[in-house]
């Protein structure tokens, strides 16, 4: 399905770099993870928002005006999408230049991809005819990227229409294939994983491109393919939820898995057989029972008065800042879980852990079917509130805890039992 196969662990790492919460032991099959990767790339480009295309209609960039560079309208800058975290922490990438060396293997793939997109815009800004060459550390493959034109598909959004050619070569031969030219033709060393994800993105976008562009490129040089790129930005919470859910039976990976360990609620199974296997394999030791746990009685709010907007901007450190359009929140729903039922929820605070002291915590379930706010009130539940905030900050901005619904907005929260591993979310 993808132009180059991507391993299971690489797919998980890539998806999680986009902000999903897939557990490291997630047993979803490779084909399902590939589908989610394609969806993630699709969401990240805000494709549906930008082009309200009917299902079968293909995109023709020539229907949009050409991008003209003046003042602040450089393509490199317009290809940049900052996240809340980058803005607040001041860690925004300042150089658009394509790096000449490979990034550290620990660099998050999503960050690398974003930099590459900006670099492609930068190459166009310097010389609209420039070519960009991507090679691997072993120089045994070469991807040539050549811009055809840049279009303005929205006020602040460029689309780079291009053609590319991917060649597999004998080791160390790649550099010889690159013409020594007087133009600005940067050679960029990228990781194997970035190569695979880039090709997956270009292949996916190529499939959505109007046939006329494929024909044009094929006429000029048969072994080149046409595609396009858009700025890559962070994915909204709701879309992240759809990419993170139904991780399947932890033993066999089957998607339709209705059983859940009823002690800790953190693992799901397709059948009692798989549940028994997992229990014997060691879940027995990890499973945390809620017996003798301490429950704190708290009244939740549907929405904290007057702070919703400030909260929205800070809700997810990786959410993208895009004009005044802040990312969608999980739905607010007055109902919540049924009375007396214990559910595992995610708790998050606004702002950067350890930097801002929040006066409320957002709480939502794994299906994102309800969302509540725990607001510091000056009342008796504030001691538990402080404990919860500490726990959230210590674990980097979110924790998973259990709660029981008592009445309309009255809940009981358990803070002294920790989910044994990252729950299936
Ligand atoms: Zn199973
Ligand atoms: Zn359990």
From TrEMBL:
Pfam families named among the record's database cross-references: zf-MYND
Higher taxonomy: Eukaryota, Fungi, Dikarya, Basidiomycota, Agaricomycotina
Full protein name: MYND-type domain-containing protein
Signal sequence, start to end: none
Keyword Zinc-finger listed: yes
Organism annotation: Panaeolus cyanescens
Listed Gene3D superfamilies: 6.10.140.2220
GO molecular function: zinc ion binding
Keyword set, alphabetical order: Metal-binding, Zinc, Zinc-finger
């Amino acid at each position: 399905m993808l132009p180059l196969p991507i391993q299971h662990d690489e797919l998980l790492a890539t998806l999680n770099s986009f902000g999903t919460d897939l557990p490291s032991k997630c047993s979803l099959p490779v084909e399902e993870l590939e589908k989610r990767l394609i969806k993630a790339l699709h969401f990240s480009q805000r494709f549906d928002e930008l082009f309200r295309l009917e299902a079968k209609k293909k995109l023709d960039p020539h229907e949009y005006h050409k991008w003209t560079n003046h003042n602040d309208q450089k393509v490199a800058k317009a290809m940049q999408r900052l996240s809340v975290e980058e803005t607040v922490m001041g860690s925004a990438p300042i150089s658009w230049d394509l790096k000449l060396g490979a990034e550290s293997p620990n660099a998050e793939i999503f960050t690398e991809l974003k930099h590459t997109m900006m670099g492609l815009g930068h190459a166009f800004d310097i010389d609209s005819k420039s070519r960009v060459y991507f090679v691997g550390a072993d120089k045994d493959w070469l991807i040539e990227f050549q811009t055809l034109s840049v279009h303005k598909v929205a006020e602040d959004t460029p689309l780079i229409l291009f053609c590319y050619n991917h060649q597999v070569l004998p080791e160390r031969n790649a550099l010889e294939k690159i013409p020594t030219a007087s133009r600005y033709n940067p050679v960029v060393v990228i990781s194997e994983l970035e190569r695979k994800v880039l090709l997956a993105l270009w292949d996916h976008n190529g499939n959505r491109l109007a046939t006329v562009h494929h024909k044009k490129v094929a006429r000029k040089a048969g072994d080149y393919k046409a595609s396009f790129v858009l700025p890559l930005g962070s994915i909204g919470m709701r879309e992240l939820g759809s990419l993170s859910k139904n991780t399947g039976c932890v033993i066999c990976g089957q998607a339709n898995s209705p059983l859940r360990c009823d002690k800790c609620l953190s693992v799901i199974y397709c059948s009692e057989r798989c549940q028994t296997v997992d229990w014997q394999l060691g879940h027995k030791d990890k499973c945390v029972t809620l017996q003798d746990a301490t429950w704190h009685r708290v009244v939740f709010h549907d929405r904290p008065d007057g702070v919703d907007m400030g909260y929205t901007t800070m809700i997810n450190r990786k959410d993208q800042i895009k004009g005044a359009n802040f990312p969608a929140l999980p739905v607010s729903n007055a109902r919540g879980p049924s009375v007396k039922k214990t559910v595992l929820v995610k708790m998050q605070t606004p702002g950067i852990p350890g930097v801002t002291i929040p006066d409320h915590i957002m709480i939502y379930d794994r299906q994102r079917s309800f969302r509540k706010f725990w607001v510091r009130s000056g009342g008796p539940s504030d001691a538990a509130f402080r404990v919860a905030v500490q726990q959230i900050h210590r674990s980097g901005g979110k924790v998973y805890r259990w709660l029981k619904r008592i009445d309309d907005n009255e809940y009981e929260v358990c803070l002294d039992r920790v989910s044994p591993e990252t729950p299936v979310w």
